[in-house]
Specification:
The protein is an alpha+beta fold. It is globular and about 35 Å long. The N and C termini lie far apart (32 Å). The model has no long low-confidence stretch (mean pLDDT 96). The chain binds FE2/S2 (inorganic) cluster.
Length: 107
């Protein structure tokens, strides 16, 4: 299987592009943590801590639907955006190819 490209918008507006594998069953949260991004992921990916909050700058419409649990958690955040997601709820797959995300969760 082909790798996909994940783009991370840094706080200075620059973009870092990473190659991500789609055949390991990783979530975007696990992938970002594995690449030394500061995400606490206190709940271990259960959609309960929101420390993996990201804003999807490009590609939001292609992503899997938000579950009720994910939405309920996002809705508690003061900095929720129209394209917010929990990175732990996004599996690395072709739908994520080329997305641009900005990490918003507390670290
Ligand atoms: S890791 Fe806790 S909500 Fe995603």
């Amino acid at each position: 299987m082909q790798d996909i490209k994940i783009n991370i918008q840094n706080s200075d507006g620059s973009i870092t592009t990473l190659d991500a594998p789609t055949d390991m069953g990783l979530s975007l949260m696990e992938f970002l943590k594995g690449n030394d991004y500061d995400i606490l992921a206190t709940c271990g990916g259960m959609a309960l801590c929101a420390t993996c909050h990201v804003c999807v700058v490009e590609g939001f419409d292609k992503l899997s639907e938000i579950s009720a649990d994910e939405y309920a958690m996002l809705d508690t955040l003061p900095n929720i955006t129209d394209t917010s997601r929990l990175a732990c709820q996004l599996r690395l797959n072709d739908a994520l190819d080329g997305v641009v995300v900005k990490i918003l969760g507390d670290s």
